Amino acid sequence: MATECVNIAYGFFSPLTGFMGSADVESVAAAMRLGNGLVWPIPIVLDVPHDELRRLGVQVGNTVLLTHQGNPLATLDVSEIFSSDLTSLAQRVYGTADPAHPGVQRTLNYADRFVAGDITLVCEPVINPPFDRFWRTPRQLRSELADANWLRVVAHQTRNVPHSGHEYLMKGAFMEARADGVLVSAVIGEKKEGDYIDEAIVLTHDHLRECGFFRDDIHRTTALMWDMRYAGPREAVFHALVRKNLGCTHHMFGRDHAGVGEYYGRYAAHEIFSELPDLGIQSVLTLEWWYCPTCGGVAYEGICGHPDTKQDLAGRLIRSIISGGTDPAPQTLRAETLQVVQRCAQQYGFGSPFVTEQYLSQRTPVMTIPAPP
Questions:
Q1: 165-183 burial, b for 16+ CB within 10 Å, e for fewer?
Q2: Out of 62, 128, 160, 368, which one is annotated catalytic?
Q3: What average pLDDT values come out for the chain (373 residues) when binned by 10 residues?
Q4: pLDDT recorded at residue 286
Q5: 158: annotated active-site residue
Q6: For the whole model, what pTM was predicted?
Q7: Annotated catalytic, 160?
Q8: CATH number reported for the structural domain that contains residue 157 in this entry
């Protein structure tokens, strides 16, 4: 709830001005559009148990205070209190009601009431190191991009440490979009054991620029607080809209964008954009990058003629390299990237670059809401 309040208040989720009501939720689930016709693919809702609402006496027309970490965060002008068939909602948004899907599980775990209404931030969050170097509001970032004369900006969505395929993806999209810069938008948020720690994600991406693999004036890493829904093509549209709010003119989409398991096709995210010509941001659709020993380097699926000998730059391979701690082959993972991962493991991950129970319980939070004076 807290990160969504912050994202709404600062305009990351524009045109939303608060938590969605029943008409918008139904319209989004059915047609990926708000009631006013604007494209929006994922419900943004505030769930509260009915018993809790009754205990607190919350009614439509009230203004209530939302808190985080025990401190005031925002006020909510309650415009509607409603319920929804959660199984039906999950089926329409995710294309499945299988509780093994993390987005479906999130939906099925919602409380039995939703509270809708506009929010007003009453206390600005403090973004803690190292994320304070990378987090900017949409207004701040748009201003900084304008100062840098970035007129054509291509966004790269990531929740991973970058391997060679990611690097080639960014460089290829940069050239295809004839962009002035690549904006890496790293998702930091809800974690499960085995994920990369957030600190490693942002710092390794920024290190590509620090090492000169991207020039200083064409590459920038930012952080977005968002708990992934793994909604496949719908989430791809959501990512595009958020990055448009950040000032991006283009967004790159590769294989299995925002997917999980076998719920969506490898390029389902590519197909959905042909149905939505009114997004206000252009999609850069790319195929897979892999290592080809015959070609002698990283190759592009749309060019390489050796699919039988390719070596996928899969997450399992990269994780095994990182876990092994040996110098990787440059066609898979840069040694400089591995060094940053190892430093992050010691400084932030309690010895591991991957999320552990200790990391989840003892890490410094991404943001803190200060106590009122």
A1: bbbbbbbbbbeebebbbbb
A2: 160
A3: 96 98 98 96 98 96 95 97 97 97 97 97 96 98 98 96 90 95 95 91 97 96 96 96 98 88 89 86 86 81 83 72 72 88 95 94 94 83
A4: 85
A5: yes
A6: 0.92
A7: yes
A8: 3.40.50.620
Query: Measured between alpha carbons, how far is 174 from 178 in angstroms, rounded to an integer?
Result: 6
Helix, strand or coil, per DSSP, at residue 370: coil
Do residues 295 and 333 both lie within one domain? yes
> Which of 101, 124, 147 is the last residue in one of the domains?
124
Compute the radius of gyration of the chain from its Cα atoms.
21
* In a shared domain, residues 89 and 238: no
Alpha-carbon distances of 371 from 68, 125, 168, 227, 368, rounded to whole Å: 10, 10, 45, 25, 9
153 and 102, same structural domain? no
Q: What is the DSSP string of 312-365?
A: E--HHHHHHHHHHTSPPPTTTS-HHHHHHHHHHHHHTSTT-SB--HHHHHHSPP
For the beta carbon of residue 286, count every other beta carbon within 10 angstroms: 21
The upper half-sphere exposure of residue 343, i.e. CA atoms within 13 Å in the direction of its Cβ, equals 12
- Residue from 159, 266, 319, 343 carrying the catalytic annotation: 159
Tokens for 362?
């003892």
| pLDDT value at residue 326 | 66
Residues 7, 158, 204, 356: which is the catalytic one?
158
Query: For this structure, is 33 an active site residue?
Result: no
Residue at 152: amino acid letter: R
Could you tell me if 186 and 86 lie in one domain?
A: no
Q: What tokens does 54 get?
A: 């009754």
Query: What DSSP element (H or E) covers 75?
Result: strand 71-82
Give me the sign of the Cα torsion angle 350, 354, 358, 360: positive
CA distances from 190 to 96, 99, 200, 357, 358 (A): 22, 18, 15, 13, 15
What domain range includes position 339? 131-367
d(CA 328, CA 101): 33
CB-CB contact of 15 with 38 (8 Å):
yes
